Amino acid sequence: MLERQESLATVDPVWARISQEAEAAVAAEPLLGGTIHQSILHHASFERALSYRVSLKLASGEMSEQIIREIADEAISSDPGISTAARADLVATYERDPACHRFLQPILFFKGYQAVQAYRIGHWLWQQGRSDMAYFLQMRISETFGIDIHPAARIGRGIMIDHAHSIVIGETAVVGDNVSMLHAVTLGGTGKEDGDRHPKIGNGVLIGAGAKVLGNISVGQCSRIAAGSVVLEDVPAKTTVAGVPARIVGEAGCSQPSVTMDQLIGTK
Are 117 and 89 contacting, i.e. CB atoms less than 8 angstroms apart? Predict the structure, then answer.
């Protein structure tokens, strides 16, 4: 086992750490041994474990775990960017969420992380023209995790969604890299209009709990949206907006608000 861990550490330090933490978790809580073995230790790679976990969570009487796992395996093997993004999301969650103390936690327990990885499978299906299957996964993600992400939305890597309940991300929304958002965030439209109608969130943005960003507007990189705000206009880069409707109340307060997770608002 030690030789295997050393080999993994050379090739994939993220997976090596998850595996080591899984073994420690089994020793500490034997009642979870079956779950942890099935989800982590039984698998030879991060990709296989991720595929298993997604399929297990999304399976239902309508679609078996085996079928969903075959879809997930195909997506991950066809697009290496999925597993790269999944690793970046995991590290982002560990670094930014004070409740996350191990790499093991997001893949086993955190529905925000799991939902985003399941969305990535659905997005791959959408790109392959398999829209009905993508919609099916969207439905199951919503039913299972309480998060509704349209499979056509484009989401970058290094994403951290804390708590994650009641997140809604619309069809033409774009979310950049290294974005953090809390529960009950909506990236939505403003009516029945078709076409490009959802927000474009820049890299490094922090979106507070309950914030609503509506319409085809741009939120500049490394900006902050305060909790409970309703954003209806473009947000310049490196600023903080707050209120209903949201207005600029100051600078972002730091160079990487999505990483520091500092939500205290200063005055302009």
Answer: yes
Checking DSSP bridges between strand 239-242 and strand 247-251, what pairing results, if any?
antiparallel
Fold of 153-267: UDP N-Acetylglucosamine Acyltransferase; domain 1 (2.160.10)
Q: How far apart are CA 182 and CA 203, in angstroms?
A: 16
pTM of the predicted model as reported, rounded to 2 decimal places: 0.92
Q: How far apart are CA 51 and CA 44, in angstroms?
A: 12
Average pLDDT, the chain: 93
CATH 2.130.10.10 is right for the domain spanning 13-146: no
> How far is the C-alpha of 263 from the C-alpha of 268, rounded, in Å?
15
- Cβ atoms 228, 210 nearer than 8 A: yes
Which pLDDT band, with edges at 50, 70 and 90, does 266 fall under?
A: low
Task: Count CB-CB contacts under 10 A for residue 173.
Answer: 25
